[in-house]
Amino acid sequence: MSVHAFDDQLSELLPRLRRFALWLTRDLSSADDLVQSTIERALSTRAAKRDDGDLRAWLFRILYRQFLDSRRRAQRYAWLLGRLREDDEPQWPSAERELLAQSALAAFEHLTPEQRSLLLWVTVEGLSYQQVADILEVPIGTVMSRLSRARQAMRRYGDGELPTPSLRLLK
After folding, report:
1. What is the rounded distance in angstroms from the CA atom of residue 95 to the CA atom of residue 89?
2. Each residue's pLDDT tens digit, 80-91
3. pTM value?
4. Which residues neighbour 24 within 8 Å (Cβ) at sequence distance 6 or greater?
5. Residue 162: which residues within 8 A CB-CB, separation 6 or more?
6. Which sign, positive or negative, has the C-alpha torsion 144, 141, 69, 152?
7. Rounded to an integer, what distance in angstroms lies between the CA atom of residue 117 and that of residue 122?
């Protein structure tokens, strides 16, 4: 892929990357920082990308890995800061016609970042299960089962059920 074509595709994907980063970080400046570090990483490792690979999936993989790395770093050094930053509950408009949207967004808020990522990639970004499997570097069946659990959690939260931790028997 030529440098010009790469830059054009990168420019087209910036809004999608920014939207996904905003959902992950819940903060505009953090999302912009995440997208910037993703683009820096993509440009510095462009030679390592296979030409036959999907650029969109590759960039989402970089962004997601950057997000996970930053979360791990934040958790590792949280004791220096004295406390972990807690996300504020979103301020919802009070109009009755937006009740269903509020319920869905509130349920989405309660999902884990991994579940939100899966739902965003598949439903909003339109990535195939195989592309998501490539991003996460897991089998496609794992993506399908995780997506199923994320959808079930959305339904439970939408119905007002509180999450209960599930226990698994290991043999």
Report:
1. 18
2. 555 444 444 455
3. 0.59
4. 31, 34, 63, 64, 67, 113, 116, 117
5. none
6. positive
7. 9
